[in-house]
Amino acid sequence: MLSLIVFLPIIAGLIILAVPSSQKQIIRIVSLLAALAQGVLAVLIWKGYDPALPGITAGPGGSPLGSFQFVEKIPWITLNLGSFGPLNIEYFIGVDGISITMVILTALVSAIGVLSSWTIQKQVKGYFILYNILAAAMMGCFVSLDFFLFYVFWEIMLLPMYFLIGIWGGPNREYAAIKFFLYTLFGSVFMLLVMIGLYFSVLDPVTGNHTFSLVAMATQSNFIKDAILGPDNVMWRYVAFIVLFIGFAIKVPMFPFHTWLPDAHVEAPTPISVILAGVLLKLGTYGMIRINFPIFPEVFQASLFVIGIFGAINIIYGALCALAQKDLKKMVAYSSISHMGYVLLGLSAGNSEGMVGALYQMFNHGTITAMLFLLVGVIYDRAHTRHIEKFGGLASYMPVYAAFVTVAWFASLGLPGLSGFISEALVFVGAFSSVTTRYIAMVAVLGIVFGAAYLLWSLQRMFLGQRRPDAAYDLVAGEDGHEHIHFHDWKGKIDLDGRELAMLVPLMLITIFLGVYPMPVLGMLTSSINKLVEVLSPVILPQL
Amino acid sequence: MHSLIQLSIVVLLLPLLSFVILIFFNRRLPRRGDFVGVGILGTAFGISAYIFWQVIVQSYDPAFRVAWDFTWINLGNVPGVGPLQIRMGVVIDNLTSIMLAMVTLISLLVHLYSTGYMAGDKNYGRYFAFLGIFTFSMLGIVLSDNLFSIYIFWELVGLSSYLLIGFFFEKESAADAQKKAFLANRVGDIGMWLGILILYSQFHTFSFAEIYAKLAAGEFGLSNAWLTAAGILLFMGCVGKSAQFPLHIWLPDAMEGPTPVSALIHAATMVAAGVYFVARIFVLLTPDALHVIAFIGASTAFMAATIAITQNDIKRVLAYSTVSQLGYMVLGLGVGAYSAALFHLVTHAFFKACLFLGSGAIIHAMHHEQDMRWMGGLRKNMPWTFATFTLATLALAGLPLTSGFLSKDAILAGAIGFAQVEGGGIYYLIPVLGFFSAMLTAFYMGRQIWLVFFGESRTHLKPAETHHAAHHAHDSHDSHTDLHHAEHQVHEVSWNMRAPLVILAALSVFFVYSPDPLDGGKGWFMKMIPTPATVVGQANPQKGSLIAAATATQLAGAVPEAVVGHAAAGELPNAASSHGQATSAHTYSDLRQAEIVHAGHAAHYTAIYISSVMVLLGIGLALVVYVFNIIDPEKTALAIRPLYLFSLNKWYWDEIYQATFIKGSMVLATTLSWFDTHIVDGMVNGVATLVRKFAFFNDSFDRHVVDGAVNFTAFTVNTIGAMLRKLQTGKVQTYIVMLILAVFGYFVFYFTRLIY
Amino acid sequence: MEQLTPIGLNHYLTISAFLLGFGLFAVMTRKNAIVVLMGVELILNAANINFLAFSKYNGGMAGVMFVLFIIVIAAAEAAIALAIVINIFKIFKSVDVSSIDTLKE
Amino acid sequence: MFELPSGAEIQSIVATLQSNVGFFIPEIYLSLLFMFLILLDLVVKGRKNNILPITTLVGLAGTLFFIYQQHALKAGELFFGMYVLDEFALFFKYFFVLSGMLAVIVTMADEQFDREVKSMGEYYALIVSMVIGMIMMASSADLMMIFLSMELVSFTAYILTGYFKRSPRSSEAALKYLVYGAVSSGLMVYGFSLIYGLTAETNIVKIGAELAASNPNSLVMIFATLLILAGFGYKIGAVPFHFWSPDVYEGAPTPITAYLSVASKAAGFALLMRFFFVAVPHGGVPIENKLSIDWKTLLIFISIASMIYGNVVALWQKNVKRLLAYSSIAHAGYLLLGIIVIDKFGTQATLFYLLSYFLMNFGAFYVVTLIANKTGSENLDDYRGLGKKMPLAGAALTVFLISLVGLPPTLGFIGKLMIFSALLAKGSLYIWLALIGVMTSVISLYYYMLIPLNMYLRESNMHDDKEMNPGILAQALMAVLMILTLYFGLFFTPLADFAKYSSAIFGAVLH
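^ inputs. structure came back:
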């Protein structure tokens, strides 16, 4: 089941490989079908998921079953390393509350992404092959419970992303692409070392061999006391934690490792921005939750304050930078930096409210930001510019578009009744309830105001008031007396057309529904998060 | 589930229904579906009236309270806390039922009125949809039984006011105003949110009842300073919504919205929500917090009044009077005159709505002329409007026989009592400011009445171009004005705009509230809304004094009401004996409140005298200036020009904020983004240029990769590379030299290491 | 002539060290390719002397054998070297090692 | 002083020789093949037809069979300890024969030969002789044998490098290679002589024992070690003995470049491992003695220098062959990492890495050759827009480069994984080396990606987007190499087991 959802895009990619590159429509349809099938599978998995099982650590008897669900555990590679015993790498995937939300999100966003890739005209075949590889890799990251497997998927993501930005991107794409690549690789190579170190420090309680299994690593008693990353080796444990954290923080991206994000977003084509903001950023925080924190709980406890500080910096710094942007897409990019800051803050709270909020924020940010980037893409397709100052008064001429933008913008600034609010609220509730991060939370709330400021300001400049003299569109008097808007060299529908609605409406419905009744998602999270908080709580630390 | 609860939920959801219908289908419905809005609100009002009847008239119980809630978010079994849920629910008590009736009534009237006022607007249907969502959120605030849902609806009313202020979004001024309103409210909301967080972090619940119970039980883990902070922070929400100083700036600008909206949202209901909220949390406010509140209220009342006297825009005068009146209410709460403040909330809602709708009628009739200088002599053309407007004005000015007199007077009396109890001194500033503002109120309202209704029409005096501008500013939304625009003759508005005026005016007369035209305390309202017992007291509840304990037992049932028998009564016999009927029913759990209320009643008549004098002074002054022209306003203005300008420019608050916060944050933002692109992204700025010297291939790619973030590394790496590759001379003998050097070099190195 | 110490191991070693030095010097400084190759021969011969000396003083024939092979190898090397140098001369019209540096950064 | 051997002794010597010949079949077979090729060349008059290469391929393939048979034989010393036959040697025998075959294949694909030379003459024969030399390098256990085999390899390499007689670059490369090689082998021999002086032995096993027994003067020892390392280092092309490699790699015919960069480097490593693991005593004793510490520190320096230098300088290259040359220097550094941790796991990792390097480097050079055939250039800028014109070649080259960087799911990733695992398994002392390793591989990403960047992200300056087809056979071979790189990247068990099996011989020596 899970394997299917992971490898469906790969299959689609192979099919596309066989299709002659002239058959653009077929290629698109094939990938769309794959994405939809993924969606269906995601729904099935969601239906079959039992929210009672916590996950995070092994269930009774050290086996993942009874704790994780849809588990597939097949020995993949077994070597004899002589003195180090057999090297076991397993094809070990499964979901718990944390990953299943992300799985659903990924399926949703990649389907949306395929739809919005419809407008891609250049080298369609190559594009969709890479796109499908990317989709598969993302899904794989979220379901893999074996560190080695996770790492493989994690690295596989880089190359398609590099080409997708680099070939189909904007004018400055080379720079953005290589920057993205180098940054993320820099983060992940150290992860490789930590992974190896962990392998030599952890024993699988069942087989008694060294193992890459994240499930085994999440239990401190499985560590060899004097191993390189064992409980005794405090110094290296700290180093490993920091290294891993930076590796993930680059993906988040966390200040000061965020500078690749604005470039990447500005250059990337719309669907890739959607994927990037909708799913890829989540991988950073997901990695922290799945790997970084449970494996080094005591270090996590020690660094709560620092993480919180960085979260607050992200929130406010991102918001302020967004306030100063003239390029709409860059503004949205900085807004995601700001919103991911909420996730970090929630994690740093270290209590259930905060963590649930963080996870929920990940999900909501996925949907909302996808919406934002799609909307940016809509206007960019028409006007070929994203300069905020080059519009004005659009609301009179593109009412539907304006309505969607308004909802999306308000969702992004955390208006109650829309999903973003609940997650931010929970994050603050958690962060404030924990004594460590209380004062940080007090500062971070300023982000709420700045967030409202840049969003409302851009809304006003683009949609309200009158057309600006140097606007990127002209007004022509229609036959019915009213003025109509006209973009030069845009043949299509002025207001949102069917395809765009098909992308936006589902996201919007989800946003509103989850804003009114969050339990469908939260219900899956809570048990896992409570378990996680237990795992992380200082009381069960190994006696160093 | 109690039947009233079911009804109230229906009331809550009906306006939402109207919103949904109208936002999606208004273009398909006849008359853009305005009848849907009016009809639904009519129903809602009917139901709320029934609830009002049930609660207030039928069952005469000051402690009436029914509540119902459900699990909204279930966080499961949280480590360290146990099972944790976030619950949502509604509560009905006397105050709620009164508010319900008031809100739905005014909303209904405004809907009705708007069918006339907004007729022909191109977004007519959307307008009613917005009114619907506003009413929904407002009722949500009224009914919420916990802080979280109040915060949610709090933001939602903010949204709807944002949408309605910016209803004519083609006007830049409107767009600015809506943004300003939303942001100012957000600032307030931050404080409120933090206050909520403080309470939650201690009790892991949002529900009023549970929080109060736990507070009274002394479970508040932090110091009392935190509690005071919580109170003040929560009050910040009110500061934002009720436009208290220093966040009052948004309300006058909010007049960019359609006038009925100003009446509904920015006069009667939403701005009053702040006061309502403070009343809800009244019991957890510590004395220090109350002092802050009182002072802010007083200063707001005074400042707004001083500004109002010089404004020329008819709506702006009313807006500032609204701010000022809200100041009164906050002041009232601050001094502990709980019932009086809420009483004033209700009365003010009616007469201020009446005033706004009246001004709307005038503006409508004057073809969107808003400047009082160009009005005048309207009483002949618009008798109905004149009559109702005048009545409401008298109520606002607080002349006897009006509702305004009763409530304002009670507040002032409370203020005096408060001052006495707190031991005079600086505290006397509060009543003094109150009375002075009363005079100013009377003055500027008199001025307004006179400028608008008396004398001769001054339309022709208006400079043409401004007139033109004013007209064009508005023609965006109104087509039929253009027809009438040709001839300038003013006439009375149609029935659907007249009826609301009459109703509201009728509700501004004293006997609606109290048999005694001079004492609201004798009226039903203040009997039904007694001052609840505080759950904090002056002393730290942890001390577990007799009183606190008693309170706790009382509050175990979460009844925000304290009938602490002999315990307290024994302590204050005089309080028990010499209260008027209003309070004879209850004695108070802590001395301070008791004394204040007692002193307030003692001060009742003094208050009446002083305030009447003040009001008469004010009106007299107005007459002197504007009727008998004994004092020429222009001359005076010139004589005290600095003061005049100060008032005319609203104490320069906008300019100050513009210069400090807005500029500040913009500068900060630009600086940071520069920092981002140049410093963070280029580690060291000079590096980039330095590196270009080393950059060998000169296409953009490398120049870029060489500056930029990853590229500090790239820089060092490249430079090293550039230096090392010099070794590759292409001469084989250099290579050999290198080889020999390497071998013998290491040998020497090893040798030296061997020696040392 | 008792002050003359009999020729000992260290004499051979010194000689070979000198030879090595000369060889390296020639290889590093001489321009003519042929001379450079002669330097190489010097180095090899330095090794040869070492081997012979050691095999004399440590006993065993291995060193001697080694020397034989080295001499053969040196001859072969010389042959190949000359071929290449001639080819170089054909192309560059010079056998100046230091001037042949077209392949470089 | 040397008494003559008696008849009986001579008899026994002859007997041993006879008995040992059976262990020597592949080498003999290859020598026959060598001669046969020369004769065949006389027959075909060096005409350019596929007879010679095909024969070579078949012949080499045949060798594999004989090598396979040797698995059955019991490992041991031959010819009085001159020569050994063990799994380690077998591994490299396969390795060299296969790389020889690949070299032949690349040569067949390379059209440069048609332009540059009239007759292929003894070219293939030389390749075969080089294979022989390298095989003997891998299995020689005596200083003399080592020297001879190395020289055999070197000489053939000189000739092959200068095979384009009329091309100045080729000839210059040959000259530089010759001079540099001669000097460093000379130094090595001098080092040998010193060792011989210290131990009076030429067999490395005996040398090891001798050194362990008598604790020699470490100053002389380090000097000898340095000189010997100069010889080995020049074969493996590690800093600071690498200077010849960029020039030679650039000048030599591409197949030879590939061959040198893979095979002779591997031979150098085989020699290095055998010599130091066996000759330098460190083994059984838990406390490593001074010698091993000395040369280990030496190797650490060298490997760090190679990793940094190779990757950093490569950033500047515009010629793809030269770029790959520098990358091969860097890879020498990574390989040394595996040797530095003196244990079985490390050896296994090194051998594994050699295998992966063999695959990806040959692949890369092969694609470069094919591209050069079409564009006639190895210049980075001429790769613009090739991604569209030669889709498969582009994809394959990208895969090989990614593998060289060491990203999953490729073989190169597993190679790095095992090297780093070996380091980390050894303990915290070696983590810093691992850190340097990963850092430098991040740097390497940058210049490796320059090639795909030019191929895909940039438009070609000449605007004809017609596909260039390198021919079905070449396509197929590329695809096979690419798929192997990916497949073994995901399922590397067989290779890893083979590497372990081959490194078993050091079980006695290494703890």
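Chain D touches chain A through 40 residues (CB under 8 Å). Confidence is low (pLDDT under 50) at residues 283-287 of chain D.
thumbs up if we can close this ticket
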